[in-house]
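Obj: model holo form, ligand = thymidine-5'-phosphate.
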Amino acid sequence: MPAKQSMMYEGKAKKVFLTEDPTLVIVEYKDDATAFNGQKKAQIAGKGELNNKIASVFFRMLQTKGIPTHYVDTLSDREMLVKKVSIVPLEVVVRNIAAGSLAQRLGWEEGRVLPKTVVEFYYKSDELGDPLVNTSHIDVLELATHEQLVQIEELGRQINIHLKSFLADKNLLLVDFKLEFGVDEEGNLLLADEISPDTCRFWDADTKEKLDKDRFRRDLGSVEEAYEEILRRLGGFTL
Ligand code: TMP
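Output (holo structure tokens):
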């Protein structure tokens, strides 16, 4: 197992450590939860472990479908070995059902099925509060090349298809989710960051019960239990 060296970066929900291999880093998932650009903060016992395991299941599934990801291995309850990438400063949101900021922006009732998949880009900037940006904004800010953006949107749509059908088998609706991409040393575009109840909306297909971070954002309670239920429906994850 590669040894952890100095911490390279600490985000709201994860820490990233260098290893002796310059092409690999270790991601440590924290129990910290934030919402509304860090204004709301809490610790959710067990969240780091649950997200590490849930993300491991998703990354492995997507790799079997041919999606290029940064995932290499799951090292421990909270640690994942991934390829070192330079993160494209965009949050790529893919939506199947109106919820959250889209429901607000378009005035659509939460839960209304979108007639077509919606893909949005947000500029990753804490100072600006991650604003929605269009392709011209991305171009002038030089956040990604046109070619990268086309590839990112196409990967986002493919990932949506794979995740949606994988989750449907577990009686879960994939309402929407956020992806981040990175570029490795060889210039390959890889799915990076995490896929977890922190970054997706999952609803029970029958009851429409929310089984994701909206339970924390909206003070619905039973946050940890919801994340546990997701891991349980995915079949669990053993190291
Ligand atoms: P939104 O409806 O608030 O724009 O969120 C869309 C999706 O993106 C939802 O699944 C939650 C996820 N998300 C993040 O992962 N990080 C964020 O900072 C935000 C605002 C949303």
